[in-house]
Structure prediction request, 230 residues.
Amino acid sequence: MPIQTVFLDAGGVLVNPNWARVSATLSSHGVEVGAAAMAAAEPAAKKRIDTGETIKATNDQQRGWTYFNLVLTEAGVPLSDATAAALAELHDYHRQFNLWESVPEEVLPSLAALRAGGFKLVVVSNANGALHRAFDRLGLTSAVDVIVDSFLEGVEKPDPRFFRIALERSGSRAETTIHVGDLYHVDVAGARAAGIMPALFDVAGLYPECDCLRVRSLRELVGALVSAGT
Prediction:
């Protein structure tokens, strides 16, 4: 059946960590590493977390701060008391404002193109309860139709119940929905368990063996969905 609804992960798809803020906070603790170096290291760090065993043994909050340690390691920064103190400070910021506050240039035009193509847009994110405020602040709320924050629902991906909640909230059907996320064992596995078509957002091309639709940008996603619907 033709796709009518697009579920979109927030972090890693629509918003990224503010690496400039991370770099400045680390610098205030005596650790020097550039924003660009961490952004370049991020895909490999994220893939190290993306295993079935890790996902089953942790929740999103636990993975989030392991992720930052892995980004630093991949960027060649030794972990220390100073990096731990900087990350603790960033954690406090994240709890209040959401550190994933960098919006790639392609996001708003791509969301507009999907809407123009007739797709309903639903943000389905493992988050910390601050996602709605963050999207308001970043000017993204009006670009989507529904935002579903796992913290507020009490269940998170890959649990299929979270996807079913998102289907109910948005008035969508599993068989006409595609979910786009950046972690295979969270997003692809979870969507499939809920009967939803998955797509993996793989900006660095690190998943060549992926067994579902794989896109490296939102522009590529727009092209795939719009062409499939014509």
Summary: The beta strands are 5-8, 16-17, 100-102, 120-125, 146-149, 177-181, 197-201, 213-215. DSSP finds eleven helices and eight strands in the chain. Residues 81-97 form the longest helix (17 residues). The radius of gyration is 17 Å.
